[in-house]
Structure formats: structure tokens, C-alpha cells
Amino acid sequence: MNRVRGGTVVIKFGGNAMVDAGLKRAFARDVVELWRTGLRPVVVHGGGPQISAMLALLGLESRFEAGLRVTTPEAMDVVRMVLSGRVQRELVGHINEHGPFAVGMTGEDAHTMTAVRRPAWVDGRPVDIGLVGDVVDVNPRMVRTLLEQGHIPVVSPVARGEDGQAYNVNADLAASALAVALGAERLVMLTDVEGLYANWPHSTEVIEHLTADALDGLLPGLASGMLPKMEGCLRAVRGGVGKAHVLDGRVPHAVLRGALGETGPGTTVVPGSDPARRSSGRTG
């Protein structure tokens, strides 16, 4: 606790916890508890299920390539509306049930995140996935100001291009970029599986501890859903973040354990090149 007190922890909120009312409220309580213990939490949220539901309601296709949503201009309008107009407002509201803590913003605000168009790679070839961005620059001034004023920033992963175009950024990669720019002590990714499986789908063994170099070697063979999360963890620890955790958001108080560095189920990525240590897990 003393090692991280006063430090910044970036938390990516996603998975089934985002659509379960009880889990959303529990997450909000845990984030406020982190703030009360002296940490400075920053939340970056996803919104995949809500975006898919709205696209279906509007008769628009949901399609993914290499784990990233194909984002047409029409889909981009829906992404912005759902992320900053619905998901973010709900999460800010849950946190603020405990006091005037949370302030919502997007990566577009104050040019906090600048992105360029990102292709997906499938079978070694680039695939056009539309208005999907990769963060190339982060200006953390606005986020730091909110933290210094005692607030909890809640950030939607929409970034601005130098051409003025808005881009849909994968929330895992947005959280990673922000963690690096803030010099965060930890990056915590909440999802709906137990961690990184050693040999999915043939094994339910979870890798508990993984170095950056070992993870780099595993990335090309990862399943598409886990790929952005682990890529985000790798970028974070190579960018100076002390540790990155992928944790099951369905487990009570997972965010508290991850932020405070307590032992718990999930995968922890650290800098270095030591061999991974593995332990058994259950199907997520």
C-alpha cells in the first residue's frame, strides 16, 4: 500500500461488468475506495456491447477484424454517441453517488489523445477497418489537472486526428497510452475472463506472471479478443508503467486487488525477460 500511495492507477473498465448493474455499482464503489486510500485512479471505459446493441437497433452491421471494430462513418457517429452520451454518463453517475468525484471527458477534449488511422492485419495482410485510430500522442495536462483537484477522470476512448477526424480507439490501447503518458504506477484491465490462457482453446491454464519479452513472443498467436489487451499491457510496461494486470471483472473487488498489488487471479505483466510462471485456472 505504501509503495503505491499517491501514485496514479489507470483502470480499463470493460467486459460483462459494463452491462451488469450490480457489477457497475460495485466497480464505482471500489474506485472511490481507491481514491480514499490515497491513490489517484483514472478510468478509461469501453462500450462494445452497448455499441453493438445500438448499431443493431439502427440496422447497421457490427463486424470485427483482428479484435477491432470495423468503424464506418455511420458507425463512428454511433460510437461517439454511445460512449460519451450514455456509457460514460452512467459510470460518472455511479461514482458520484458517493460524492462529487468523477468528471467525464473524451480523448478529443483538450486534444488529450491524437490518433492516426490504424489498419488491422489478418493473415499477414493489412485490412481496412475504417475510422479506427491508434494513439500516437497524449497530452495529459487536462487529466493531471483533474487529478490535482481531487477528481476521478472518466475517459471515453475517442481520439482526434491531426486532420480533425474523430477516431474510434480500442479502450485497452487508449488506457495503455494514457498510463504511459501519466507515468502511472499500474495499469489494470478488467475483462470477463480469468486472464491470459496458456494455450487457448486447448487449455484452461492461466499464465499468472509474464515478462514483456515473453509476452512479445506470444502476441502473434493470441486470440483476437485478447490481442488488444495484451498489446496494451506490453506497450505500458515498455513505456515505464511498473506493472500491468489483466483481471476478471466479475470477481468482487478485482480492481482493488489489482491496484493495490495484492495476489489474486489474473495475469500480471512486468518489464524484463524472465520466463513466464504459470498456474492452473478455470474456464472464463
What report would you give on this structure?
This protein has 284 residues and is α/β, with parallel strands linked by helices. The protein is built from eight helices and 17 strands. The strands form four sheets. It has a nine-stranded mixed beta sheet, with helices on both faces. β11 and β12 form a beta hairpin. The radius of gyration is 18 Å and the shape is globular.
C-alpha end-to-end distance: 29 Å
- Could you name the ranges where pLDDT drops below 50 across 5 or more consecutive residues? 275-284
Main sheet specs: 9 strands, mixed
Shape field: globular
Tally of helical runs: 8
Count of strand segments: 17
Q: Which radius of gyration do the C-alpha atoms yield?
A: 18 Å
Secondary structure category: alpha/beta
% residues in beta strands: 25-35%
Strand line-up across the major sheet: 5-10-2-1-13-15-16-14-17
Mean pLDDT value: 88
Helix residue percentage: 25-40%
Elements, N to C (H/E): EHEHEEHEEEEEHEEEHEEHHEHEE
